[in-house]
Amino acid sequence: MRGRIGLVFVLLTLVLSGCAGTSQPDQAGQNPSIAPSASVSELTLVEFSRQGGLKGADDHLIVSRDGSYTLTRRNQPDASGKLTADQVGAVQQALDAANFTSLPHVNKSATVADGYTYRIVYDGYEVQAEDGAVPPALKNVVETLNSLLS
């Protein structure tokens, strides 16, 4: 057993040291072999989660700025694709109209049984809301994103 652990450790060390690379930075301090890339948050337009409801949903949608998306759902295969320009425009318009960063981070409700809990992340700002406590400015965002899950 110790031999296997030692072998795994040696292999892991070799893999990690190989990932370090050997190219030298150029005069500006940049590594010429690695092209600059945008971070995930710069590529993501919106992240939307919907949990609960009568069926116990657990949906997670990530929409990129170019309209590509990934959707994961409980007990269903993952899906991906590309939204139309109109769909991306509708999402962007709803988010802009909501004045998103002025919304409270948490909006809880004690009045709706078996309702959904929503989590929306836009430009690094996260808002959570439960059915019965969705702020009026956020309702169009939730409706627009829910329509993409249909």
Describe the protein in words.
The chain is of the alpha+beta class. It has one domain. The N and C termini lie far apart (51 Å). The N terminus is likely disordered. The chain is globular, with a radius of gyration of 21 Å. It has a seven-stranded mixed β-sheet. Helices cover 33% and strands 30% of the residues.
The biggest sheet, with number of strands, parallel, antiparallel or mixed sense and barrel status, is: 7 strands, mixed
Number of H/I helices: 4
Strand and helix order:
HHEEEEHEEEH
Unreliable spans: 1-37
- Could you give the count of β-strands? 7
Spatial extent as radius of gyration: 21 Å
Give the neighbour order of strands across the main sheet.
4-3-2-1-6-7-5
Strand-pairing-aware structural class: alpha+beta
The residue-averaged pLDDT reads 80
* Separation of the first and last Cα atoms: 51 Å
> What is the domain tally?
1
User: What is the chains' assembly state?
Assistant: single chain
**Silhouette:** globular
Helix percentage range: 25-40%
Beta-strand content estimate: 25-35%
Summary, kept brief:
This protein is α+β, with helices and mostly antiparallel strands and 150 residues long. Helix content is 33%, strand content 30%. β6 (116-122) and β7 (125-130) form a beta hairpin.
Secondary structure blueprint with pairings:
Elements lengths: L1 H18 L20 H4 E9 L4 E8 L3 E6 L2 E7 L2 H13 L8 E2 L8 E7 L2 E6 L5 H14 L1
Parallel strand pairs: 5-7
Antiparallel strand pairs: 1-2, 1-6, 2-3, 3-4, 6-7
